[in-house]
Structures are given as structure tokens and as C-alpha cells.
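EI: anyone free to look at a 106-residue chain?
SC: sure, send it
EI:
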Amino acid sequence: ALYPPLARASDVEGFAVVEFGVAANGKTVDPIVVDSDPPFVFEGSALRAVRQWIYKSQRKADPDARSVIRIVFRTAVDPELMDEPAAAAEEAAPAATARPDPTPTP
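SC: here you go
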């Protein structure tokens, strides 16, 4: 997810929790924000990111099943968590990044 420019400039960190479905073709369906902190800051970026996701495997489970992901926005990121091209870009022009949080949400 792209870090919102005003949040980055102000060193604001936070998260957005997005619930979504996955269609048979692997595309995400009807993403909605179910929680965020601070409110309204990262929601747009999180929704835009989830709308672009495409799952590689075909969906055979319940078509009405929903998934939940917590996307965390931090201004300082551990370089070991980044892939090499992103790390090289980070060294060239430091910028804030966002990544999904693997911690499940209730």
C-alpha cells in the first residue's frame, strides 16, 4: 500500500483493517475498512491496495467467505523485511512504506 503523502510528511503511523471476499477468478471483492487508527488516514490507501490484489490459486471454498487483513503503516521499516529492489530504492530515496501485519485480528 502506498503511504499517504500527508501522513508521511507528518510522521503519522497507524493501520487499517480491511475485510474482503475473493472471487473465483482470484480478484478481491467488496473490500471494506472495519477498523483503522488514526481514523480516515490510511483507509483509502489500504482499500486501493486490496482492490489490486489477485490471488493465484482458484477459489473453491465458500463464495461468501470473507478474509481480513491488517495493513500497518510505519515511517521506519527494518531493511531486513524488505526485498532487494525495494531496499535499494529505500537507500536511494528514503520513504515510508506499508506492509500487511501477519498478526491476526479478532
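EI: Confidence is low (pLDDT under 50) at residues 85-97.
SC: 👍
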